[in-house]
User: Fold this.
Amino acid sequence: MSLLVSATALAAVYVVVGFLERRPALCFRPLSSPRPYLATDIAWYGVAVGATAVSVYVIRPILARVAIDPLARHVADLPLAARLLLGLVVFDLVSFAVHVGLHRSDRLWSFHKVHHSTLELDGFATTRTHMFENLARFVPGQLVLFLLGMPAGVVAAVVAIAAVYGVSNHSNLAIAAPWIEAVLVTPRLHRRHHVPTTTMNNYGAVFSVWDRLFGTLVRRDTTDDERYGVPGEIDSYPQRFREAVRQPFIDNVEQRRQERTTDRLIAP
Assistant:
C-alpha cells in the first residue's frame, strides 16, 4: 500500500468518524462548530504524513534488515492472521512503554504536551502530535516487529490498524460497551487520559490489558464539566501551529537553565 493511498484512506477515516461523532445520538458531548483550531490540526496532519514518509522510505528499509534468524523462521511459519495479531499485540505493548516514557521523562513530556493540548477531543485530535513524537512513538514498535522477522507488509498493516484505532479512541463517540474494555481501549477509557486529573492513567492505545497489568487503568466516565488539556496549562499552552512547534524546544531550554541554576546552588 503506497503512502498516498494510506494517507487518503486515513483521511477518509477522519471524515467518517468526524461525521458520526457529531450525530446527537452517537456523540459523548456536543462539539463546537466550526471546529476550533482546525487549521492547526490540518497542519499537524501534514506533519504526520511527512513523518510517515520518513518512516516508510528511510527508516523502515533499514529496520527490515535486522531480523533475528531463529525467530524469523518461526514467525514465517505462522498463518497471516496469527502474524497480524501477534504483530498488533507486540506493537501495542512497545507503544504503551514508549507512551509511559513520554509522560515520565520531563524532556519527552515537553514534546508530548503538544498532543495533550487539544481542548476538544475528537477523531481529528489524533493528528496533533509533534514530529519528534511521531517518530518516537512508531519507530521502536516497528523495530521490534522486524527483529521478530515480520515482513514489511505485515508491519505496514499493523501500523495502519493502530493508526485507525487511534482515531476511534480519540473520537467523541459515546460507545457504551464496558465488556469490551476488559481487553480493548474505548473512547471512554482514552478520554480519561486527556483529562488532567487522570493524565497518568490509561496509556494503552489498542489493548487495555497493559494498563490493567501495570495498575494504571481507570474505568470511570468523564463528566460534562471536566476539561481536556495539558495539566496546569489548559488555557496557556499554545494552540496555534507555529507556536506549538517551537514550544517543546522552549520548554527544554528552560528546564536545562533551571537545572544548571540548581546545580550551581548545591555545588560546594
About this structure: Residues 3-266 form one domain.
